[in-house]
Amino acid sequence: MAHPLIIQGGMGVAVSGWPLANAVARLGQLGTVSGTALGAILARRLQMGDPGGHLQRALSNFPFPAMADRILKTFLIPGGKAPNAPFKTNPPPMLNADRASLELTLTANFAEVYLAKEGHSGVVGINYLEKIQLPTLPSLFGAMLAGVDYILMGAGIPRAIPGILDSFAEGKPASLLIDVIGALPGEQFIDTFNPAEFCGAPPPKMARPFFLGIVSSDILAATLAKKSSGRIDGFVVEGETAGGHNAPPRGTLQLSDTGEPLYGPRDRPNIARMRDLGLPFWLAGAYGRPEQLREALSLGATGVQVGTAFAFCEESGITPEIKHEVIRLSRAGETRVFTDPLASPTGFPFKVVELKGTLSEESAYQQRRRVCDLGYLRHLYRREDGTVGYRCPSEPVAEYVRKGGEEAHTHGRKCICNCLPATVGLPQLRKKSDDTISYELPLLTAGNDAANVKDFLPEGSDTYSVADVICRLRGNL
Containing domain of residue 98, as a range? Predict the structure, then answer.
């Protein structure tokens, strides 16, 4: 089949939700949902009453009804939770997690892809971070049950994923080697998922989706092409101007006068070598203009991946208030995107849009009480007795140090797990000691192209749609 010209990036937590991906796919391009923290998103949306009944409709089509019923019984609150009630806290991802946690992850990925694919014949992908390993296996299986067409993965070296897709397509078990800090030489920690344990019958055989590795260099692309566990179908080559997590600069980290990582010629991919790999590739990172799409095609790329332009359109998951403010700043020429070398617990640089009322403000960061209750970005480490422990540089400092972490690693770390759901209108409520309440603040990530989102506005309008983005990008093509 012919691959799409434009890939809509899988952004944040529910920024690239199913409404956005569905709209993009209907127009003949690759609509991509974000696979990050979907279990938490499903649980919170159900506790909000499932406005529109979309999740209940998706779960009514889940192939294992008893599992879907358990999810609804656990999380659905008809009419929605009380405004002053916090969301129920789900157990954080764990190595060899219990069945309830696996079922939540599996059904959440199914529902998101099902809704993205509903009502059209276009193609849909799902984007995962290699750094978030523990939910990976049930996430992939759930997405494949819904017929996902593409799997995209970056923020690491996802060599094991193609082989896992092969196994799941045949209904076979799959395993994933988990990174554990302090593991002894030869010691392995492995997570395993057996579809037969969840299907109650022989697992169905499914179509194997295309796998696209998200890479920052031709060197990494060549490594994946040669050393992966199965077939690589192509690459998204993402530069440091893209939103979300960026690959660190090669060599010793150096910072600019403003405190941002400095990138140089060594960090630019060699496009000629990308062509030599003989696989489709898309260029990404500030490719939101029609002339850049034409340039990418002239260089031999299949097309481009665009995230930021789609992030602020009407169909994206970001709250309308935040979208309106970003568009206002773009019109005024006042957009500021800071590549923060410390914000993410992963240690990867993380793009942050500076906005009032968000955790980008230093005063808001200092006032927030540290808590780690979602745990998607926790690090696994080996305890002295050989068991696995979990710690996060964004958790309470004393806790992190007690678990063997260095205090210096906590400086400047932000709780991305809690901030990103707030960006899409699902903030956790916190009760203070004086019985007052507060909400987790958003933290907005976007690429450098956030400064240019005004260019997609139709004349006389303050908002724009998926169709406006695709029409402008395609230009005269």
Answer: 6-318+450-474
**Coil, helix or strand for 32?**
strand
Contact 40, 375 (CB under 8 A): no
Could you give phi then psi for residue 150, rounded to 5 degrees? -135, 140
Q: What pLDDT is stored for residue 155 in this prediction?
A: 80
Tens of pLDDT along 328-342?
999 999 999 999 999
Name the nearest CA neighbour of 280 among 322, 320, 237, 318.
Answer: 237
Average pLDDT over residues 242-271: 89
Total structural domains within the chain: 1
Let me know: does 47 contact 87? Beta carbons within 8 Å: yes
Q: What is the CATH number of the domain that holds 154?
A: 3.20.20
pLDDT tens by residue, 388-402: 999 999 999 999 999
Classify residue 339: in a domain, yes or no. Answer: no
Residue 69 CB partners (closer than 8 Å, separation 6+): none
Could you tell me the pTM of the whole model?
0.96
Return the closest-CA partner of residue 353 out of 15, 98, 18, 71.
Answer: 15
**Structural contact between residues 152 and 32, judged by C-beta atoms closer than 8 angstroms:** yes
347 with 156: CB under 8 angstroms?
no
Rounded Cα–Cα distance for residues 368 and 352 (Å): 17
